[in-house]
Specification:
The chain has 190 residues and is mostly helical. The chain has 10 helices and no strands.
Amino acid sequence: MEDDELNRWFCHVVLPHEPVLMRFIHRNWPAGADIVDIRQDVYERVLTAAQHHGLPSQPRAYLLTTARNLMINRARRAKIVSFELISDLENADWEDLTVEPHRHLAAREDLRRAHDGLERLPPRCREVVRLRKLEGLSTRDVAERLRVSHHTVERQLTLGMRALTDFMLGGEGRIERGAPVRRKTRETQG
């Protein structure tokens, strides 16, 4: 694609979406000083992708998806990241940012409730849920990091997710441990 054609496309098709892009970044990125840099990085990625892979069929959606992915990557690279930031970015309703603001408020309230429920879990259980569900580590990787068996990771994840679901549905979010499963011994088999 010629540079002039790419520049015309960018000016006439992408730039008109800048107000939506800026609202999206403002709404989802806590550090106001980074907003202009994020916008510029988004534009650079959109232009580079269009030059190498062709023009996207849905430029607005592509622009917002690029912004979302860029902010998620920046947040993950930061050493101190809040649960709310990653969750807000991953679950953002970026298709249409101007419609139904009450849905955005309800979603944010749900995320805050999920955060509160996560904080109520016992430490190891909370860490297993965080590593598996938020960081996306495998069961094996979590087990190695926490120096526990993969069975422990699976059990803690099951207990944590049940408690978190209960909390999200209005319950107390307590860990409900069933009666321990006892293996048959030679004495009880005979």
